[in-house]
Amino acid sequence: MERAGSVQAKGLAQPLATSVALPGAGAEVSVGLRPQHLKIDPAGSSHRVDLTEALGGVSYVHLSAPSGEKLIVERHDQISLEPGAMVGVGFDGKDAMVFAQDGKRLR
Questions:
Q1: CA distance 61 to 12
Q2: What's the chain look like in SS3?
Q3: pLDDT of the residue at 3
Q4: 37: buried, middle or exposed (CB in 10 Å: 19+, 13-18, 0-12)?
Q5: What is the predicted pLDDT for the residue at 4?
Q6: Which stretches of the chain drop beneath a pLDDT of 50?
Q7: pTM higher than 0.85 for the full model?
Q8: Which end of the chain is more exposed for a tag (fewer CB within 10 A), N or C?
């Protein structure tokens, strides 16, 4: 195992810098990000808005990445995003969970 590094997650434009022990370079891992940890950047253009579910105090924005990956972002504001709009997606790397190929979480 290597210590620290970064991984590229399908569906996200920015690489994920992490301090967890990673397998060697080029090894496959899975990255998990919860909807409440993703942030929408209205000035970005990497993801297409498919649908916004407005549920009172919370909204769930369904996005498609250029790779075809689907993401859901939880929001607590009243900003409306129309289907077809392009946005960016960001997150804090400390919120990401990284899993080995066997499904065990790397720490």
A1: 15
A2: CEEEEEECCCCCCCCEEEEEEECCCCCCCEEECCHHHEEEECCCCCEEEEEEEECCCCEEEEEECCCCCEEEEEECCCCCCCCCCEEEEEECHHHCEEECCCCCECC
A3: 45
A4: middle
A5: 59
A6: 1-3
A7: no
A8: C
Q: Could you tell me if 85 and 48 are in contact, meaning their C-beta atoms sit under 8 angstroms apart?
A: yes
d(CA 90, CA 36): 11
pLDDT value of position 35 = 95
Contact 44, 73 (CB under 8 A): no
CATH assignment of 2-99, among 2.170.190.11, 2.40.50.140, 3.50.50.60, 1.20.1440.230: 2.40.50.140
- Count of positions (residues) in the chain: 107
